[in-house]
Design goal:
Elements: H1 2-17, E1 31-33, E2 41-49, E3 57-64, E4 70-79, E5 93-97, E6 102-108, E7 116-123
Parallel strand pairs: 1-7
Antiparallel strand pairs: 2-3, 3-6, 4-5, 4-7
């Protein structure tokens, strides 16, 4: 009986949080998730490629781990070969991610000097 009540209590606690607890994939050192996201969002894939263009293209796949819509802000700061930011005043972009959905966020480098990037995500406080 005690075991059953304890399991019901744990189930109720999980339901009230709104987010499912799942293992988070290893983080890329270039990705910074704000602490206010908790376990609500995680990044599954980060790609930065040049292709046929002189400019790098970035894509990150982010997952809304909650049972409701999640609004976030994100930005990409591009860096040159010396590690200096090319666009230090990058603008925060806003987007909504549907519950339990994956969304691809994409950017193109502002100049051919970019060799890598830093990706930042935070919860949009409404």
């Amino acid at each position: 009986m005690k075991k059953m009540l304890m399991m019901l209590g744990m189930a109720a606690a999980l339901l009230t949080t709104g987010c499912v607890s799942t293992p988070v994939p290893p983080m890329d050192r270039r990705v910074t998730l704000s602490p206010n996201l908790g376990s609500s969002l995680y990044v599954t894939d980060v790609r930065c490629t040049k292709g046929n263009s002189a400019f790098y293209t970035f894509q990150a796949n982010v997952v809304n781990n909650c049972s409701g819509e999640l609004w976030v802000e994100y930005k990409v700061v591009w860096v040159n070969a010396e590690g200096m930011a090319i666009n230090p005043n990058a603008v925060w972009e806003k987007t909504a991610i549907v519950a339990h959905d994956i969304k691809a966020l994409q950017y193109t480098a502002p100049s051919a000097d970019a060799v890598d990037m830093l990706f930042y995500v935070r919860r949009l406080e409404q």
